[in-house]
Amino acid sequence: MATFFSDIFGNLMNIDLKMVIMWLIGGTLVYLAIAKEMEPSLLLPLGFGAILVNLPQSGVIDQLVGGEVEEGAFDVLFRAGIANELFPLILFIGIGAMIDFGPLLTNPKLMLFGAAAQFGIFFTLSMSMLFGFELKDAASIGIIGAADGPSSIFVSQYLGSNYTGAIMVAAYSYMALVPIIQPPVIKLITTREERLIRMNYEPHSVSQKTKILFPIVITVVVGLVAPKSLSLIGFLMFGNLLRECGVLNSISASAQNELANLVTIFLGISISTRMRAEDFLKPQTLLIMFLGLIAFVFDTVGGVMFAKVINLFLPKDKKLNPMIGATGISAFPMSARVVHKMGLEEDPQNFLLMQTIGVNVSGQIASVIAAGVLLNLVS
Amino acid sequence: MTFNVKDFVEISLPILAKGMLGIFFVIGIILLCTFLLNAVFKD
Q: Which domain range does residue A291 map to?
């Protein structure tokens, strides 16, 4: 009888407090995904996966049985798609197919705001080094400021960071919290007069040839100038070419839906292998969550301050509303909507949506380039 | 927790400066290419 109970319930004795804490963390992520709709496509598999990998003798991760390694499905997926950076790259095909570069091509100057809003990445890298992280980990923490999950996974895996799990949780949580993080920061560094500035929108059409050539030209140019960005920008622009070429509509739709959805599922559960209690429950995890917030705050500061500097050189009737600078991050279209709404709250007749969408799209390109530049400098 | 001021000053600040310059440089080239595409292929 005793043997029967130990056979059936023996594994219960392997439960420890750290595992229980991880179940609570996993449960919290699942709750935030479902109840608060915070990046549910990633936080739900990540949270559920965190519970699975922290069950005693979990069969989904590699276990040492009788001196031999018994492979777990999650670890197999991790090695197949994350360790070699394949899943984030494939996801970029789907993301590229979703992006309409039209608003950006209409007003290309907006790209400069996308560049400025990457300031948070490099500022956070510096702060992380100040707090004692190694360069490879500091760069991986800094890339949270790309506000772009696949780039964060790509960089942290490329550099072999020890904190991929915490970085993912921070990146996706703060992306969902953009409507809470950005408004107070913007209000703090702008005056009401600046927030009331109206900007004229002069729409003009962009030819189909330009839309088709744009992803090809950008890939070649970026590949020549920043070769480490090439896989990131190349997959992103390949997806966009599928969208714009006009002859692969069903493949473009598949990339936007089925491909992106499937890879997102695998991405979430694979990353959860890095949420084992022994890897995740460290004081550094809390520090990474704090530094992730710093990254988003200083992205916003970088974009807004750049617009304010540009305004110093513009005539009075051509001034920019500096709030649009904050949308130069990759969190699309959330950031654009947040700033558009802020403009309407200050003045119900101030419509900034077209400008903010253009800047927000530029942030998607700039964040990928920032990841490449970072890899060039660090690796 | 230890504060690593030496690495902050000697390693990360130069990366910050080079990184931002690098992004503006690449985006600047993309900007020029986009202006060119828009000018050549007008609707």
A: 13-378
Question: What are the C-alpha distances in Å from A70 to residues A10, A61, A66, A145, B18?
Answer: 20, 8, 9, 37, 46
Given an 8 Å threshold on Cβ–Cβ distance, is B27 in contact with A378?
no
Q: Give the bridge partners for A114, in sequence order.
A: none
Q: Give residues 282 to 311 of A whose Cβ lies within 8 Å of B.
A: 283, 287
Beta strands in A40-153 (DSSP E): 63-65, 68-70
Question: Is the minimum CB–CB distance between A111 and chain B shorter than 8 Å?
Answer: yes
ipTM: 0.94
Whether A369 and chain B come into contact, CB under 8 Å, resolves to yes
Tens-digit pLDDT string for chain A (379 aa): 667 777 777 788 888 999 999 999 999 999 999 998 888 888 899 999 999 999 998 989 998 888 888 999 999 999 999 888 899 999 999 999 999 998 889 989 999 999 999 999 999 999 999 999 999 999 999 999 999 889 999 999 999 998 998 999 899 889 888 999 999 999 999 999 999 999 988 777 889 999 999 999 999 998 998 888 899 999 999 999 999 999 999 999 999 999 999 999 998 899 899 899 998 999 999 999 999 999 999 999 999 999 999 999 999 888 999 999 999 999 888 899 999 999 999 999 999 999 999 999 999 999 999 999 999 999 8
Number of domains in chain A: 1
Establish if A232 touches chain B: CB-CB under 8 angstroms.
no
Out of B4, B12, B26, the one facing A373 most closely (by C-beta) is B26
Pairwise CB contact (< 8 Å): A118 & B23: yes
Under an 8 A CB cutoff, do B16 and A105 touch? Answer: no
Q: Is residue A227 part of a domain?
A: yes
DSSP codes of every residue in A277-335 = HHHHSSHHHHHHHHHHHHHHHHHHHHHHHHHHHHHTTS-GGG---GGGGGG-SS-TTHH
Size of interface A-B (CB pairs under 8 A): 116
Q: Does any domain span residue A1?
A: no
Identity of residue A160: G
CA distance A254 to chain B (A): 28
